Task: structure prediction
Amino acid sequence: MTDNAEPGTRTADFEGWANLFTRCRAFSHPSELHGGLCGRLAAGARLDQPHWLEVVCEHIGIAPETLEQGEDLPPELPEFMAEAYRQTLLRLQATDMAFQLLLPEDDYAFEQRLQALAAWVRGFLEGMALAAGEKLGEAPDEIRELIEDMVAISQVEDSDAGDEGAEMQLIDITEYVRLGVISVFTEFNPPAPSSPAAAQTLH
Result:
């Protein structure tokens, strides 16, 4: 996994997550787990590796002790998820706004991509609510409006597959969510103030 969020990287990301979920016999959606992680991070939470792996196990549907025993599970699962956490946080923190949602690429069926987006948004809303709690009620109006829009997006179940207008709408909604996530992250993760000593120019 690389630091860049180019379309090809996003494909590799989703395929990697999806393959791992299949090998774990998970019934949940990888996009929903990624959304949940982004929701927590965007709301200002940070998870140490044991806590993050607990979240992963709960989402996939395995007991944490099963992960420790390694029974019938991909041995690279802990390392893969630790790296996924690190890369996700880096992309959210990046100033180039290249962060991307973990979603299937365009060669997947329209319904699969729509359902993945809804799953991602559901995860994001849940993760954000868990991390932010009452702080959400104090968020600016635009953030609260965004949350209302996301709730509606998370409840979308189907649309007119194959319709060019529906394809464009899916692209637009995905971009709206992506930029919204960056806005939430910016709101709840202000940059650390520079100390006077750090602000001085050394010669």
Summary: The longest helix spans residues 164-188. The two ends are 38 Å apart (CA to CA). The chain has one domain: 7-188. The chain has nine helices and no strands.
